[in-house]
Amino acid sequence: MSxxxxxxxxxxxxxxxxxxxxxxxxxxxxxxxxxxxxxxxxATLTLHDLGASAFLGEHTRNADRxxxxxxxxxxxxxxxPKDSYLVIENLDRLSRQEERAALRLWMDxxxxxxxxVQLHPETIFRHEKSDMLDxxxxxxxxxxGHGESEIKSQRVGAAWGExxxxxxxxxxxxxxxxxGEGCQVITKRLPGWIRLEAGxxxxxxxxxxxxxxxxxxxxxxxxxxAIVRKLTAEGVPAFGDYLPPPTGGDDAxxxxxxxxxxxxxxxxxxxxxxxxxxxxxxxxxxxxxALGEFQPRRRDGSPDGEPLxxxxxxxxxxxxxLAARAGSRQRLRRGNGEPATGExxxxxxxxxxxxxxxxxxxxxxxxxxxxxxxxxxDAYYRATxxxxxxxxxxxxxxxxxxxxxxxxxxxxxxxxxxxxxxxREINPRxxxxxxxxxxxxxxxxxxxxxxxxxxxxxxxxxRPGGKPAGAVLRALEAMESERSDLxxxxxxxxxxxxxxAGEAWSQLPTLxxxxxxxxxxxxxxxxxxxxxxxxxxxxDLLVVPRGMTRFAAVQIFFTxxxxxxxMILYRSPRGNASKKTPAHWWCRSxxxxxxxxxxxxxxxxxxxxxxxxxxxxxxxxAGT
Length: 624
Hints:
It is a single chain. The chain is of the alpha/beta class. It folds into 4 domains: about 5-150, 3-Layer(aba) Sandwich (Rossmann fold); about 195-330, Hect, E3 ligase catalytic domain fold (Alpha-Beta Complex); about 370-430 and about 515-615, no CATH class; about 440-500, no CATH class. Helices cover about 40% and strands about 15% of the residues. The protein contains 19 helices and 20 strands. The chain has helices spanning about 20-35, 65-75, 90-95, 100-110, 130-170, 205-220, 225-235, 260-265, 280-285, 320-330, 400, 410-425, 440-460, 470-500, 500-505, 510-515, 520-535, 590-595, 605-615; strands spanning about 5-10, 40, 45-50, 85-90, 115-120, 120-125, 195, 200-205, 240, 270, 370, 380-385, 390-395, 410, 535-545, 550-560, 565-570, 575, 580, 585-590. The strands form 6 sheets. Strands 1, 2, 3, 4, 5 and 6 form a 6-stranded mixed sheet that branches. Strand 15 and strand 16 form a beta hairpin. Helix 4 packs across helix 5 (about 130-170), helix 6 (about 205-220) packs across helix 10 and helix 13 (about 440-460) packs antiparallel against helix 14. The termini are far apart. About 25% of the residues are buried.
């Protein structure tokens, strides 16, 4: 019998705790427990969320940023062996959310076959049994952690409320050694064009000039992507919002750099991607900080009272701000409201742009799957642009849209049709893994039944004809949302278990034919994309233009480890309106086109060699 594996999870809430004993204490205690209990401690997976709060549960959702979320994703994918151990100092390291959410997380981990070890007090929660005493112990520990964070949150909220009250009343805050006499700021987060001098916010003039230029360009009709391209091409240094370090002042020696917001806060760094982005340009233009205003917000992001005017030094006037808004509106509202060529409208919240008809969503079948074989290996997205007087859908590498890389484009419709035609010819038994996913139906069904029972109990407690209190109504709404989510999950699991991947793949021909003729093509595309995402790991694309002809070499890597390589040739329409040769394309395997099938588009040397071969390949041999 193989030795069970242990995974150590370490978390603390504030970056300053990294300077203390928390990390060493949690790490050594886990290693000691594993040694005593014959568990092999995994040294390849680092599960550290340092400076990450567990109060709102974000550390369980964002797998790109938080270690616990990444671990949960691996658990759901079945990549963590059953009977493994997740070792934590205390359950409050796992979650400090409200009791139901925290207990749900605890149960989800156990339901996936992973044991949970709490070191202090030492308790082993095993997945194979449902012990009411264990549930009560877990609930008590999780409730204690949530209660501590709730009290801390209330105290911090009260302190922030007092800061906002004093600032609105025009009172100077109590001076601190950190900020100096007469400090009027109530948050350490500052716009990138502001710094503190003697506790007072002052302009960084060279950056303020850049902000002013951004407003001027917008008023003249530039979109955010065009502004990003212009600033990048001109070599204008990028900046983002600034978070001073918690102690030691702005000139304190920085700790090791971290990509997380918490880590950059500890270092006193500017929060930004290191280059200009459309999202930051959009924020500069819309949040009114450049007009000197500051909008306090609650924890959920909603506004907390009226904006504070005169909080920051003014960069642009109200007239300049209105002119930029007018320029942006004129650029975006062209005919049917479509954005200008090459632009993608920033995502709007519900209720914004009143009176503007909401555009239907388009489902890109390859979203999140398709990547550029050329450096810097960015993703491809579908865009609409004007070519030869006609608007056409094309695939464009994302970094090219912001001026950071050469553009490699390919007609989207031809690419989509070619890939679908190629995939329809594949025997699913040649590419799909044979293993079946674990049965989740029972666990989801039990959770759904418990939730519905609780909802029924609340409904019977309400007086007939009485109006539910606001808190009760919000609780019921949250539970209804959870029930819908569980119902959807249960349906997905049941469908997946009833229809293995091979059977799902067999739906591809029908769905492919339905793309153009279905009563609800959006639904057909969603279902087809779901099939692609179930069986495809990624797709790498190499585009080589040859005048009016374009080659696209694409490699598809399937989740079972199989791979297929295709060459797509596209020929643009030729001739005038009276005698016009229509566009055409074909799709063949690498071997059919080149006589070789040993190129790997993930290898730079192979990409360079293949690009050279396609650039010199006689078009007659390619069948044009």
